[in-house]
Amino acid sequence: MKNYTITVNGNVYNVTVEEGTTAGVVQTAAPKAVPKVAAAAAPAAVPAAAAGAAGSVTVAAPMPGKILAVKASVGQAVKKGDVIMVLEAMKMENDIVAPQDGTIASVNAAVGDSVESGATLATMN
Questions:
Q1: CB atoms closer than 10 angstroms to residue 54
Q2: Angle, CA of 21, 27 and 30, to the nearest 5°
Q3: CA 109, CA 117: separation in Å to the nearest integer?
Q4: Helix (H) or strand (E) holding 81
Q5: Please, which residues have CB within 8 angstroms of residue 41's CB and are 6 or more apart in sequence?
Q6: Distance CA 92, CA 78 (A)
Q7: Which of 13, 16, 71, 122 is placed for a possible disulfide with 59 were both Cys, Cβ 3.0 to 4.6 Å?
C-alpha cells in the first residue's frame, strides 16, 4: 500500500492505494479530509506614516487585485468620489474612491501590494 497526499481545489486529502489487487477486484475507499494547515501570510506593508493611525471610515477593496497607484496621502482632505487608489483586477484598472467627504487617516496599502477582497486599503475621518 502506498499513501499519497493530494490537493484538490484547495482541499487536502490523504489517499491510500493498494498494490497488487486480485484480478478484477478493485477496492476503493472514500478519501479522508485532512485539516488544512494555514499558510503563514506575510504581514501587509503599512507605510510608516500610517502606523498606529486609524480613521472611523474604512475604505475596503471591492475585489482581489494589485495596487497600481496610491493617489491620496495621510492628512489629505478628500471629497466623496475622489480617487484614493487604483486597483488592477482581471486586467482592468478600478478606481477606489472616497465613500464620503473627509480626511485620510491612514493608507494601508502600497503600490505593488496584492490585496484580497475586503482588505482595508485606507481609513478616513
A1: 15
A2: 145
A3: 13
A4: none
A5: none
A6: 24
A7: 122
Block residue for cell numbers 486599503: 121
Q: What pTM value is reported for the model?
A: 0.55
**What pLDDT digit, counting tens, does each position of 55-110 carry?**
789 999 999 999 999 999 999 999 999 999 999 998 899 999 999 999 999 999 99
pLDDT of 77-91, one tens digit each? Answer: 999 999 999 999 988
Residue 87 grid coordinates: 486597483
54 phi and psi, to 5 degrees? Answer: -145, 140
Which three-class secondary structure string do you get for the chain? Answer: CEEEEEEECCEEEEEEECCCCCCCCCCCCCCEEECCCCCCCCCCCCCHHHCCCCCCEEEECCCCEEEEEECCCCCCEECCCCEEEEEEECCEEEEEECCCCEEEEEECCCCCCEECCCCEEEEEC
Instruction: Measure Cα distances from 13 to 18, 36, 45, 118 in Å.
Output: 16, 9, 34, 29
